[in-house]
Amino acid sequence: MSEVRVLVGTRPRLMRELVLATISGQDGIEIVGQIQDDAEIEGEVERTHPDFLIVALDESDSLPGACQVLLGRYPHMKIIAISPSRDSTMFYWATLNIRSNRIESSEEGVLGALRGKMQFVEQ
């Protein structure tokens, strides 16, 4: 099973260190980097291609600034935003559209779809 790639950009530093201590060493999780300044987020996402980005959540529980742009550019990525000052965490992800394709009508076809290794049937 491949590891989930996580980029940690939570501020302040103490919160970032707590997040890193919580997820470091967990099976199936690879920390691909950490960000100390929000201005570095876009560049680090481009460089590391994480599956998850963990950032700070502002007081309004609204989507953090660059996140909407990032989800548009990297729709596979998910964002967890944690409030450093209160007990609030938000989970953001993007959906673009609904797609379909025929897969092989067999155990192999169904299991391949579940594992992300689909074998499409010619239409």
Written description of the protein model:
The protein is of the alpha/beta class and 123 residues long. The chain contains 4 helices and 5 strands. It has 2 domains: 89 residues, Response regulator (Rossmann fold), CATH 3.40.50; 25 residues, no CATH class. The protein has a 5-stranded mixed beta sheet, with helices on both faces. The longest helix has 11 residues.
Short description:
The chain is α/β, with parallel strands linked by helices. It has 4 helices and 5 strands; from the N terminus they run βαβαβαββα. The protein has helices spanning 13-23, 41-48, 67-73, 107-114; strands spanning 4-9, 29-34, 52-56, 78-82, 89-92.
> What is the succession of H and E elements?
EHEHEHEEH
Strands in their spatial order, largest beta sheet: 2-1-3-4-5
The CATH superfamily label of the largest domain reads: Response regulator
Annotation, overall tally of beta strands: 5
Considering DSSP H and I runs of 4 or more, what fraction of the residues is helical? 25-40%
Query: What is the second-level CATH architecture of the largest domain?
Result: 3-Layer(aba) Sandwich
What's the number of structural domains?
2
**Shape category:** elongated
Question: What proportion strand?
Answer: 15-25%
- What is the CATH level 1 assignment of the largest domain? Alpha Beta
* Rg (C-alpha, Å): 17 Å
Mean model confidence by pLDDT:
82
Question: Features of this protein?
Answer:
single chain, 123 residues, alpha/beta, Rossmann fold, 2 domains
